[in-house]
TrEMBL record:
SUPFAM superfamilies: alpha/beta-Hydrolases. Gene3D superfamilies: alpha/beta hydrolase (3.40.50.1820). It comes from Ureibacillus yapensis. This is Alpha/beta fold hydrolase. Pfam families: Abhydrolase_1. Residues 29-266 form the AB hydrolase-1 domain. InterPro entries: AB_hydrolase_1, AB_hydrolase_fold, Epox_hydrolase-like. The lineage of its organism: Bacteria, Bacillati, Bacillota, Bacilli, Bacillales.
Amino acid sequence: MAKYETKRLRTGDFETVYCEAGTHHSETIFFLHGSGPGATAESNWKNTMEVLGEKYHVIAPDLVGFGNTEIPENTNLTFWQWTTLRVQQVLNLMDHYNIETTNLVGNSMGGIISLNAVMQAPDKFKRLVLMGSGGGITNGPTAEIVRMTNFFKNPTIEDFRNLITYFMYDEKVVGDQLEEIVRNRYEVIMKPDFQKLYPTLFPANPLELLIPVSALKRITQPVLLIHGYEDQFVPKESSLSLVEHLPNAELVLLKQCGHWVQIEKAERFIQLVDQFLGTKNALSLT
């Protein structure tokens, strides 16, 4: 397993905290987390980075507005302004490492950011993996999403524990790690600055989450969509909608799996990413 380091870098008007491993490898992957309460690069991608860091240069930032990345002075931003700021955050990290092109793996909100990154700087990105990604058409917000975005109306540890279990088809997959996940993420989300900021990060109109069909059909990069069949936060219909319009895409649906494919189906997820990126010498997961 590759050991990752937690680092800090000034990116524009704020300092980004990010995880990095496999610095001696030439092929780079950026991992972009979602918008769940208490989400950080480490909480989303720890195990994934340790395995894929054996073969790839992996970078996973705490996206601005989340984790330990510095909160910018101006937070009076629309959802799309936050999205643009996060795209620029990735581009600034790429510039720091003189990375001309990279691959993106985006989970949920991270998928929306990945698609917007390709729309903004298409020559910078080679391949995209979208996991439980937003951006496609669904039947509207689910009850789970409503509970998440309104968490601070009753921010108890008990409600938070319930909310975390909703991300998975069956929380038994994480075993004894559940309480650690709950404790670590609850500690992040209950910081005073985040209590004030978090509810403002979501769009007032769900249509703001959608990627226009006119944009999707112009994305020529190879795209792999991976979705948990029982995902209750971003239903599979989002990926079904995206794959319909992306011209060079494929979709894998995984049964008995919710929103956290990288945790619930960890080995399968890593295999799919590794195979899709197409480099030689498949990873050994034993």
